[in-house]
């Protein structure tokens, strides 16, 4: 049971104000874990906290994942208050809906900051306390497009690919020190991710895409993430038929190239 792995642990979830992070907060809280909930929207975090099974064991710590100073000062507060974090879930992130040619490079940088560097910064802040304790689990929410390229996701796909290189290397360096790493690659999940996705000039896409609408629920995704974490999986894929692209890219690359070239960008 996942509950036994999470019970009594301190779990820090970024992007806990909606979607997958919110669903994870509910499931983790039900196990009796102590939670730290982070995102920008404090009111939404307060709503999630109030709906958690053990809201008295939830602490809201708002932060902007594009702001290094803020991430570091919140991490200092967390370390002061909790000593160490047992499970860090680097979930907060932002997607993209714009082609390479039209996208302002500041949008590429913003996506890289939020989706890649924020997790790197948090990991570096928390790792010393984890290794001192000889235990710590870093859960990284990547995407299936962290494993292959896809139209109108160039910066998003690049940031997610970067996570794999960083966290596989971290695991290789630290697994003998009790550090666990689980990289999660969701396919399409029914959340507001496409509404919040950035367009060419950084404004939100604002549309619920067909793919998301027909995706699996955030709660099912959260359940599968917790199972993978409990089982100490290094990499896990969560989705429906969309997962096939991972295997096409890996084993039948010509088919991947044919299929991806036919995708209607949106
Ligand atoms: N849904 C999918 O189909 C799908 C597929 C593959 C991977 N993923 C990944 O899953 C993760 C969660 O996304 P979701 O689907 O649950 O979408 P979502 O509902 O849009 O949630 C995104 C979360 O990230 C937070 N966030 C965004 N920018 C932030 C910033 N600058 N600072 C702090 N927090 C920020 C948001 O909170 P605030 O707005 O309150 O800051 C929100 O809590 C992301 O990493 C995403 O890339 C999603």
Q: Compute the gyration radius: what is it?
A: 18 Å
Query: What is the typical, i.e. mean, pLDDT?
Result: 97
CATH fold assignment: Rossmann fold
Structural class: alpha/beta
Number of H- or I-type helical stretches: 11
Q: CATH-wise, what's the superfamily?
A: NAD(P)-binding Rossmann-like Domain
Largest sheet: 7 strands, parallel
Descriptive overview:
This protein is 49% helix and 15% strand. With 266 residues, the chain is an alpha/beta fold. The strands form 2 sheets. The chain has a 7-stranded parallel sheet with strand order 3-2-1-4-5-6-9, sandwiched between helices. Helix 2 (19-30) packs across helix 9 (218-230). The longest helix is centred in the middle third of the chain and has 29 residues, at 105-133. The structure holds NADP nicotinamide-adenine-dinucleotide phosphate.
Short description:
The chain is an alpha/beta fold. It has helices at residues 2-6, 19-30, 42-51, 68-82, 105-133, 154-174, 193-196, 210-213, 218-230, 244-251, 253-261; strands spanning 10-14, 34-38, 58-60, 87-90, 136-141, 179-186, 189-190, 216-217, 235-238.
What are the defining features of this structure?
binds NADP nicotinamide-adenine-dinucleotide phosphate; globular; 7-stranded parallel beta sheet; 11 helices; alpha/beta; 266 residues; Rossmann fold; single chain
């Amino acid at each position: 049971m996942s509950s036994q792995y999470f019970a009594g642990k301190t779990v820090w979830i970024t992007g806990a104000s909606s979607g997958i992070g919110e669903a994870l907060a509910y499931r983790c809280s039900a196990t009796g874990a102590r939670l730290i909930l982070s995102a920008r929207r404090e009111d939404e975090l307060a709503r999630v906290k109030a709906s958690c099974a053990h809201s008295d064991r939830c602490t809201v710590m708002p932060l902007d994942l594009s702001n290094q100073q803020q991430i570091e000062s919140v991490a200092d507060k967390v370390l002061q208050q909790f000593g160490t974090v047992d499970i860090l879930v680097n979930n907060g992130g932002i997607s993209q809906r714009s082609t390479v040619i039209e996208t302002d490079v500041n949008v590429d940088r913003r996506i890289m900051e939020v989706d890649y560097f924020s997790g790197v910064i948090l990991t570096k802040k928390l790792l010393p306390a984890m290794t001192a304790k000889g235990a710590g689990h870093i859960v990284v929410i990547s995407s299936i497009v962290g494993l292959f390229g896809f139209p109108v996701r160039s910066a998003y796909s690049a940031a997610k690919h970067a996570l794999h290189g960083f966290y596989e290397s971290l695991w290789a360096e630290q697994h003998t020190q009790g550090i666990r790493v689980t990289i999660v690659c969701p396919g399409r999940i029914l959340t507001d991710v496409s509404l919040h996705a950035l367009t060419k000039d950084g404004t939100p896409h604002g549309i619920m895409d067909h793919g998301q609408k027909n995706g699996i629920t955030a709660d099912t995704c959260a359940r599968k993430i917790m199972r993978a974490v409990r089982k100490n999986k290094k990499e896990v894929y969560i989705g429906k038929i969309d997962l096939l692209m991972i295997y096409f890219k890996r084993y039948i690359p010509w088919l991947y190239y044919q299929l991806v070239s036919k995708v209607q960008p949106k």
